[in-house]
Amino acid sequence: MFLSAFQMKYNTKSIKKLPKINNSEKWLIIDIRPKEEWIESHIINSINIPHHLFRLIYSKKVTKNKKILFVSSAGHSHLDLYRLLKKHNFKVYILLGGWKKVHQTDELDKILTYNPID
Fold first, then answer.
1. pLDDT at res. 60
2. CA gap 78, 82 in Å, rounded
3. Model confidence over 57-111: pLDDT tens digits?
4. In DSSP terms, which residues pair with 28 in a beta bridge?
5. What PROSITE patterns does the entry give (predicted)?
6. Which backbone phi and psi does 10 adopt, to 5 degrees?
7. Residue 37 lies in a domain
8. Averaged confidence pLDDT in the chain
9. Which of 7, 72, 82, 85 satisfies CB 3.0 to 4.6 Å to 3 for a cystine?
C-alpha cells in the first residue's frame, strides 16, 4: 500500500472506513465546516464545531474516551486543530479528501442528511 507524505505525518482514515466509523460508539465525527454548510448537508451522527469556534468550545464537547475524526471542506484547514488535540493526547484522525470527497461518493448517501437551503 502506498502512503503519501501526508498520511505518514498524520493519522488518517479513508472514505471507505466512514460507514463503520459512523456506526461506532468509539468514534466522534467532528465536522469543522461553517454551520450553514453543515446544516445543508452532513454525515449523520456527526457534530459541528466550526473551525473558528473550535478552540473556544471543544473542551465541552470532546472527550478522550473517543477517537476523533475531523471532516473539513477539502483543504488542510484542520491541521492546527489536529495538532492541538494531539498535543493534549487525544486519539485524532483526519478524513482523507474531506467533505468534498464524501459528497462525491454515491455509496455514502445513506449516511448523509440533506437540507437544501433555498
1. 93
2. 6
3. 999 999 999 999 999 997 666 899 999 999 999 999 999 999 999 989 999 999 9
4. 68
5. RHODANESE_3
6. -120, 150
7. yes
8. 92
9. 7
Contacts 24+ apart (CB under 8 A), 53-58: 54/81, 55/81, 55/84, 58/84, 58/85
Query: Are residues 28 and 43 in contact, defined by beta-carbon separation less than 8 angstroms?
Result: no
For residue 108, what is the DSSP state? G
In three-state secondary structure terms, 78 is coil
Instruction: Count structural domains, the chain.
Output: 1
Range of the domain at 34: 11-64
Inside any domain, residue 78 = no
| 42 and 31 Cβ atoms separated by less than 8 Å | yes
Helix, strand, coil share of the chain (percent; to 5) = 45, 20, 35
In this structure, what C-alpha cell is assigned to residue 84? 492541538
The whole-model pTM stands at: 0.91
Is residue 33 one of the residues assigned to a domain?
yes
Assigned domain for 46 exists: yes
Residue 113, C-beta contacts closer than 8 angstroms, at least 6 positions apart? 41, 42, 43, 44
Rounded to 5°, the CA angle 3-104-108 comes to 90
